[in-house]
Fold this protein.
Amino acid sequence: MTEFKNTERELRNFRLRISAAIAFVLICFGLLCARFIWLQVVRHDAYAAQAEDNRISLVPVVPNRGLIMDRNGVILARNYSAYTLEITRSKIRGDLESVIDDLAQVVSITPKDRRRFKKLLEDSKSFASLPIRTRLTDEEVARFTAQRYRFPGIDVQARLFRQYPLGEVAAHVIGYIGRINQKDADRIDDSDDAANYKGTSYIGKDGLEKSYEKQLHGTTGYEEIEIAASGRAVRSMSHVSATPGDNLILSIDIELQKVVEEAFGNRRGALVAIDPSTGDVLAYVSQPSFDPNLFVEGIDQQSWDELNNSPDHPLINRPMSGSYAPGSTYKPFMALAALELGKRTPASAINDIGYFMLGGHRFRDDVPGGHGRVDLYKSIVVSCDTYYYMLANDLGPDTIHDFMKPFGFGQLTGIDLEHEQRGLLPSTDWKRRYYKRPAAQKWVGGDTISLGIGQGFNSFTPLQMAHAVATLVNDGIVMKPHLVKIIEDGVTRQHTETVPKESSRIPLKQENIDFIKKAMVGVTREGTAARVFAGAGYESGGKTGTAQVVSIKQGEKFDAKKLTARQLDHAWYTAFAPVDKPRIALAVIVENGGFGAAAAAPIARKALDFYLLGKRPGDSGKAAPAAAAPAPVEEDITPSPPTDDTKSSEGSENSYKPGEETPGNRE
């Protein structure tokens, strides 16, 4: 049977399919148009900005770090440009050690370079490149560039480097910079200055480099670079220059600093010299020192261990972190307290028989049999302990505390370095708060007696001692000690003085100040320092002192031969000159140096000779040489005593104990 086509039905189906196809095409076209309108009209601004951002790259321009100079313009910290070989760990294919071994065939890489790189890698958690070699020669750059294709993830970079041309000289003042580690990065991110550190790899870590980081760093600039789709830089669109950091002009006289550091030799100790009228710190010596250049690119483990484990502790900033009993250098201030408070007159005299008895305890003088008749002037000149045992007993601990506090004893001086220690100016209230055991909280008479000769709980930094002497000879006018004298604008070279106005005035009678100065001059003319300052071309005042390291039991006599090198007394000397209008006041301590006149005073003499007369050790025309200093000694720095802010459940070895005999200070 023949079947006929239904033409009308097929035509209807065809039209239906055509309509569906047209509808589908129209819907797709509509969606395309809608998307086009969304992208080109509604979101035009956003995507245009994004496209521009992809096309333009902002590259930070790191500013030049400011210079550090001494008061005479000698450069102490500077910058120089050099090439470094840097590795980006995330881009290294295969084993890193194998890659470094291959790299060492092209560019010299020492074991020290490897150790330093390993330490940097451990400390850094960022994806930034890290240097494996610094200061490449032109030949090394050329050799690596020729084989660059072999080392993906390794590049040569042009960098600015920090250099400390004088090495160990004044290292504790200048400090050093180092690469930004994760801790530094977190601190920067939390600060308001995070944007200013984009592209910066280094930051101040210690000393003035750290405390003046904001001024030295400068302001980061940027450059707009057009980038092709391949990532290649096409052209520079705009450039905002970085603003270099400010320069620091210090109050330090670096030549004086050198003279003092050389005078210490390989002994341990500290010296701080201050201009009393301004607070300018003229010399700030901490011995032994270290080379800050070791830290710039990250110190290697071996060098770090040598510094950190040294029994001489070269990394300790002794002038403001070392805390010591002041010994007899405290006596001029005790004498001034006696005059000001009416406890003594210049004519007040005692008969020194060689000791002072209190509660069955004998406090001995340094001279067997005593000094005989001693008035206030003689008590300073010959450093009579017995006189000050009696004076301390008459004054009492709290009176001593209240009088000494304005001079800065046991107080922060506010010098422009971080981590200054407070030291300890004791009082009965302090002892009650410090000790937990009721028996230890009680202040006993022996505690007071020891204060009179600068022993017992007394513990001050060399910086505090120099500051106190400077305040005394400045007639009670307190000037804040500072190391930075001028901040020089890195662009305009405009100078901003940092010398502060007087901080305060201690109400003292001029006749009492003049008497103490006269007695201190007597120390250098006829007293304990007369031999050291014989023939000086200027008139100075001073005071010798010793700080006892070990106590001596009742009935025993002091015998240096029975003590180890690190049990010997610390040697002190404080000085000022010229007498009529002092230009310099200083305090020097030699750890375990023995007698102040033998170890510390000769260093002070060399410092004063150079600063006042321009004479260096060995110059012709100098005065007769001072007594030879003792041999080098090997004891850890005296630990800081408890401060007003701390508490303890135990007693102190400095506390007076019945049955012990105080030997007095040995000048």
User: Anything to note?
Assistant: The chain has two domains: 60-248, 254-613. The CA atoms of residues 107 and 140 lie 6 Å apart.
